[in-house]
């Protein structure tokens, strides 16, 4: 019958279209799966090509270093007679390389002071100024260009100093410790760098010249060993 032809054609189209649509879905799924597998393989290959965590850590630490040092300073100038105190410090510092030969340091350590403090116009005998202190603070260094494994540098640091008892005697327990000077370091390859230098030191609470700020000025040598750059 004529009126059945459209319905017959439609049914036939549906029967033909269903397998085609199913095939299309299967092809699309296969394509997506293949893309995912290829992407996963590429990702694995990229991860395989990445350096190990140890290599990354070593590369990052190449721009950093640790410095362990010991320093001994005696009084200088007028303090040689009025502040006959010898100061010894042990320091551990972390250093970060900056552009143009500079480096930033953050460190601290232990300070030991031994000696006595006198006053110019006082009839009293010198007072004992032995003390133990902790110090912490930043520092800055400028390294001159290296030559045959050696380099000259100048450095400066400002640390917070907390002592027991007061240092010097009749002073305060909280002071500032300022050191600056010149030094020399030499590279020993994988063993690190040996360093030595000369510092001028100053201890003060920053309140100016008064009875509550006896202060102390010193100078002396230091030796250290650096691990890193």
Write up what this structure looks like.
With 229 residues, this protein is an alpha+beta fold. The chain has 2 domains: 4-50; 61-228, Porin (Beta Barrel). It is 26% helix and 51% strand. The protein has an 8-stranded antiparallel beta barrel. A hairpin with a 6-residue loop joins strand 5 (131-143) and strand 6. The longest helix is centred in the N-terminal third of the chain and has 46 residues, at 4-49. The termini are far apart. The model is unreliable at 1-18 (pLDDT under 50).
Concise account of the structure shown:
The protein is an alpha+beta fold.
Reconstruct the topology from this structure.
Elements: H1 4-49, H2 53-61, E1 64-75, H3 79-82, E2 83-97, E3 102-117, E4 127-128, E5 131-143, E6 150-167, E7 172-187, E8 193-204, E9 216-228
Antiparallel strand pairs: 1-2, 1-9, 2-3, 3-4, 3-5, 5-6, 6-7, 7-8, 8-9
Low-confidence stretches: 1-18
Question: What top-tier CATH class of the largest domain fits best?
Answer: Mainly Beta
Q: Biggest β-sheet, characterized?
A: 8 strands, antiparallel, barrel
In what order do the strands lie side by side in the largest sheet?
A: 1-2-3-5-6-7-8-9
Q: Taking Cα atoms only, what radius of gyration do you get, to the nearest Å?
A: 36 Å
Helix fraction, binned, reads 25-40%
Shape: elongated
Measured by DSSP, the beta-strand proportion falls in over 45%
Q: Could you say what the CATH architecture of the largest domain is? A: Beta Barrel
Structural class: alpha+beta
Q: Under CATH, the topology of the largest domain is which?
A: Porin
Strand count: 9
The H/E string reads: HHEHEEEEEEEE
The first-to-last residue Cα distance is 96 Å
Number of domains: 2
Mean pLDDT equals 81
Structure annotation, total helices: 3
